[in-house]
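ok so i was messing around last nite and threw this chain in just to see what happens. nothing serious, just curious
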Amino acid sequence: MTVRWAALAQVALVGFGVAVSLVVLFTLGVLGLSARAAARERGAGGGLGQVVAGLCFAGCAAVVLYGVHLIAFG
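result:
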């Protein structure tokens, strides 16, 4: 039995990249919610922060659902 080190490194690198991207996307969503709350305190609408947060959280959900799809039907 041999280990294909190149394939293992590729999987580890892609996994690390997706994990970092997902954390950044979630962080931007939380930042969008924070911007919305700050805008509402100032009396502004805060709609842009809510849209950014919604898009970021939808992206997070899409990545997670795609991962579940790969595991279930891969």
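not much to say yet. The mean pLDDT is 94.
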